[in-house]
Amino acid sequence: AQSVSQHNHHVILSEAASLELGCNYSYGGTVNLFWYVQYPGQHLQLLLKYFSGDPLVKGIKGFEAEFIKSKFSFNLRKPSVQWSDTAEYFCAVNAGRGSTLGRLYFGRGTQLTVWP
Amino acid sequence: DTGVSQNPRHKITKRGQNVTFRCDPISEHNRLYWYRQTLGQGPEFLTYFQNEAQLEKSRLLSDRFSAERPKGSFSTLEIQRTEQGDSAMYLCASSLGSRVKTQYFGPGTRLLVL
């Protein structure tokens, strides 16, 4: 079965610091990659996605992620975080064939706390 | 708001009781997914539908769990003879199309089994 690893469970930063959250997956075939964010009291929202093409993808609110196929990674970055970025971030992978293309495999999530 | 809606938002039940949750997807979305999320973990896939057809079920979906989407619109997830281990957030998502697409999530139903 596919798995998704997020190595940082809790990250604490000051405003204006740079952010990088790691995400690694285990699947050797074609993958589709997502980062979702869950702000306090809200539901999961899509931050950005990669299906094909340019491996550097830009999302909402200044976030970007880079797909490195050789490293099975899809790390999330933001050059300067804000207090409002405090949230839980989930990496998700869609992989497989046929009907299994429906499911998303999620990582455990990374709680980001930004101090003003 | 035309996003995915779920009802109820919270449910407390006693062990052994049956519970049913409802999910209304975004209008015209033909795919509907159910996930379960426990504390400190990411969502885990349970099952998904394309229109009325249930295309995949996870091994997490024991015989006590059943999901339906009779008319290809809303879906229900029923848990029979609930156990304390069923306590979790149950998430619903929907997407449009027959191949990989972005899944849009609802607010979830939080279940507590006493």
Structural summary, described in words:
The complex is a heterodimer of chains A (116) and B (114). Chain A has 116 residues and is an all-beta fold. Helix content of chain A is 0%, strand content 49%. Chain A has strands at 4-5, 10-14, 19-21, 24-25, 31-38, 45-50, 56-58, 64-68, 73-78, 87-95, 105-106, 110-115. In chain A, the strands form three sheets. In chain A, strands 2, 5, 6, 10, 11 and 12 form a six-stranded mixed sheet that branches. A four-stranded antiparallel sheet of chain A has the order 3-9-8-7, with no helix packed on it. In chain A, strands 1-4 form a two-stranded antiparallel ribbon. Chain A is globular and about 45 Å long. In chain A, 33% of the residues are buried. The mean pLDDT of chain A is 92. By secondary structure, chain B is an all-beta fold. Chain B is built from no helices and eleven strands. Chain B has strands at residues 5-7, 10-13, 19-24, 31-37, 44-50, 53-57, 65-68, 75-79, 88-95, 104-105, 109-113. In chain B, the strands form two sheets. In chain B, strands 2, 4, 5, 6, 9, 10 and 11 form a seven-stranded mixed sheet that branches. A four-stranded antiparallel sheet of chain B has the order 1-3-8-7, with no helix packed on it. In chain B, strand 7 and strand 8 form a beta hairpin. Chain B is globular, with a radius of gyration of 13 Å. The model of chain B has no long low-confidence stretch (mean pLDDT 93). The chains are: A mainly beta (116), B mainly beta (114). Chains A and B meet through strand 5, strand 6, strand 10 and strand 11 of A and strand 4, strand 5 and strand 10 of B.
